[in-house]
Amino acid sequence: METASDFGAFKEKFTLPPTSSLALPLNSLTFAVKDIFDVEGYVTGFGNPDWARTHPVATSTAPIVLALLRAGATCLGKTIMDEMAYSINGENVHYGTPRNPCAPDRVPGGSSSGSAVAVGALLVDFSLGTDTGGSVRVPASYCGIFGFRPSHGAISESGVIPMAQSFDTVGWFARDPMVLSKVGHVLLQLPDVATVRPTRIIVAEDCFQLSSIPYDVVTQTVIKAIEKLYGGDVLKHEILGDYVKANVPSLKHFMTKENTDQVYNIPSLAALSSAMRLLQMYEFKNNHGEWVSAVKPNLGPGISERVSNALKTTGENIDICHSIKRELHDALTALLGDFGVLLIPTVPGPPPKLQTNTSELEIFRARAFSLLSIAGVSGFCQVSIPLGMYNNLPLSISLVARHGADKFLLHLVESLYGSIKE
């Protein structure tokens, strides 16, 4: 299992060499993959021993992994993940919890925990994860690295175990924006485009109220960098919750008294996250309910409750969830235009301590999903950007761009990060 040097990130180590030796974009770079991607000759374990035991060895490798090997990168193994991808914490009772390289007494974030730790601990140059509810963005933030969630449907999910198809994306981690961008160019198979200046950068004022870290601490360096690069005129401010409430009428079905009363909440975003979680449970049940009922797998705390709740889901309100997805997509497309971005916190604060009990985490999780559901439900692309440390804990911020603007967002991160670091 864990050696002193591998931070508990790997489930199994092996080497898949590049399949081509030409001068390629990812030459001499190494990567690891979450144990949700098929690799020929290995069982795809999905974070759970009972799953591994009841599933055969993969007979082919996920096309996305092959694309990276063809681009000159070397795969060094599979990483630990949260069971059945059903957590944003990163703790795994069966295989051990990968150690957060920024903050060893804190969770690494899930469900792509091992992939984030492998990058944060300098074990590989980049890694693959998946992001359904936040499983790339959260661990990227907690481990102090870049994490990219692409536009929904932009990257093939063939050879990847589904969690909930309405939200599943293949994402990736890197320590520097150049590598993040290079990997993006390979995975997104997009032609090179000229760098475009953003038309507006919208600060979602209310979203920063959800964070336990003072607004200025999170935004100061980024706003300075934006003003220096693009001038102050590009900055706009928006109360995103009000905009969403006014422009996503179907959300009213999820606006409960509970969602409106709580002090830490933005009611419309809390409703958004309720819709996201309901549709996610429904699709998870359709994908894996039969297996769970037949095998009765041993699942860790938090996960077992979530899975059993998912199995009780009915088709009620599922059509409304799909309407909300469409309405939010259109509303945010109108807000951002072609080359606008939204500035929000990735998560509501620093990573929680290891083994914090689930009830204590409830408020934090609720706030987290309010933020994560913005890109999740709209299908937009999002990047989490590390901003160094605050009180010895990693700090990050996120940029969200319209569906299909992935290349633009990758270019923007490169320019902006250069200026942040100056």
UniProtKB/TrEMBL annotation:
Residues of the Amidase domain: 23-176
PROSITE patterns per the UniProt record, alphabetical: AMIDASES
Organism name: Clitoria ternatea (Butterfly pea)
Protein family per UniProt: Belongs to the amidase family.
UniProt-recorded Gene Ontology molecular function terms: hydrolase activity, acting on carbon-nitrogen (but not peptide) bonds, in linear amides
Highest rank taxon of the organism: Eukaryota
InterPro entries to which the protein is assigned, alphabetical: Amidase_CS (IPR020556), Amidase_dom (IPR023631), AS_sf (IPR036928)
Entry protein name: Amidase domain-containing protein
